[in-house]
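Dear colleague,

Thank you for sharing your sequence with our group. We've completed the structure prediction you requested, and as agreed, I am returning the results in plain text so they can be pasted directly into your records. Please verify that the sequence below matches your submission; if there's any discrepancy, let me know and we will rerun it promptly.
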Amino acid sequence: MQIVDSHCHIDRVDLDAFGGSIESMLEHASELSVTKFLCVCIDLEHFDQVHNLSKSYSNIFASVGVHPTEMNCKEPSVKELLEYAQSDRVIAIGETGLDYFHVKKDQADWQRDRFKRHIAASNDSGKPMIIHMRDSKDDTIEILSSERAKKGVMHCFAEDLETAKAALDLGFYISFSGIITFKSAQDLREVAKQIPSDRILIETDSPYLTPVPYRGKPNSPAYTYYVAEKLAEIRNSSVAEIARVTTQNFNQLFFS
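Please find the predicted structure tokens below.
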């Protein structure tokens, strides 16, 4: 059985629990069958760190992008994103999208402009997008549609079924994180029941959003297992089947 953590920030994981060793962290993950990782970039200043991880470990892949809430950072051009995306270790564009929780909608023109540049880079490179969407579902879907975004994943999905269906209609995948294990997430679990099996991914978003039973403690990619376990429960399936399907979907999205 192989489980893929389709969205994590290994460069930001606290390694103290692993003796300061990435190798120990990866070994811990492998004990729970988590053996492939997409380490997601959130700004260009740290791209080399993310990229070097992907070059150092054959089972870690990288993305390139600038998160919508990053403000005091280098602003990406389409040309720069495309240059970084030429590496065969870079398999995605993002994390990008819109976040109206941290920035008010009427003050977020710069977010929308940045988002459109990432869409252009994704379409030009043929590499899928990783979409961050918080309190911005209507604008996110509208921009993806109007800019003719070709493919990608709605990372850490926490919206309603209508929004999920709109993303699916655009050809995007839906990724669930440890949020589905939270007591407060019953509505999201109902959504997770209804997503087509060939369009689901799982992730940790570590070091954030630690799932139950480790809620409140530092997160790491190993805990993708518990996302798979909860999704199996929700969908009346098995962990092995969720692992198989989500691994197949990951490979289909990022490597086909």
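Summary note from our side: The CA atoms of residues 45 and 226 lie 32 Å apart.

Kind regards,
the structure core
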